[in-house]
């Protein structure tokens, strides 16, 4: 019987350890073996001006952004409504009119 913790995301019992990181083969979630089990504090994401962003906020793009794999460009001043905050390098998920579903970096937006 394994003494490794269950996956905190999908509760799978089939986790394994690799170089100090626990990995779940079912949902591909990775977490540190030294991290505490209680991660109740929400992550705070800041815009380009240092304002804290929250789920559902409206933001404005502050720089022309090329859409990878396309000839489309998200222009300066584009308003993005109802953002969702996610973990990762691109920490904002959103839907932009005329372009569709996208992930943005918080450093290229300001709170509207």
From TrEMBL:
<dbReference type="InterPro" id="IPR013987">
    <property type="entry name" value="YjdM_N"/>
</dbReference>
<dbReference type="InterPro" id="IPR013988">
    <property type="entry name" value="YjdM_C"/>
</dbReference>
<feature type="domain" description="Protein YjdM C-terminal">
    <location>
        <begin position="46"/>
        <end position="112"/>
    </location>
</feature>
<dbReference type="InterPro" id="IPR004624">
    <property type="entry name" value="YjdM"/>
</dbReference>
<comment type="similarity">
    <text>Belongs to the YjdM family.</text>
</comment>
<feature type="domain" description="Protein YjdM N-terminal">
    <location>
        <begin position="3"/>
        <end position="32"/>
    </location>
</feature>
<dbReference type="Pfam" id="PF08274">
    <property type="entry name" value="Zn_Ribbon_YjdM"/>
</dbReference>
<protein>
    <recommendedName>
        <fullName>Protein YjdM</fullName>
    </recommendedName>
</protein>
<dbReference type="Pfam" id="PF03831">
    <property type="entry name" value="YjdM"/>
</dbReference>
């Amino acid at each position: 019987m394994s003494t490794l913790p269950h996956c905190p995301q999908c509760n799978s019992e089939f986790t394994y350890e690799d170089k100090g990181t626990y990995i779940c083969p079912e949902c591909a979630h990775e977490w540190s073996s030294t991290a505490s089990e209680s991660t109740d504090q929400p992550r705070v994401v800041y815009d380009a001006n240092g304002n804290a962003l929250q789920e559902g906020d409206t933001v404005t793009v502050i720089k022309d952004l090329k859409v990878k794999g396309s000839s489309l460009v998200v222009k300066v001043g584009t308003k993005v409504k109802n953002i969702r905050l996610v973990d990762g390098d691109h920490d904002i998920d959103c839907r932009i009119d005329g372009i569709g579903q996208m992930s943005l970096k918080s450093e290229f937006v300001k709170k509207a």
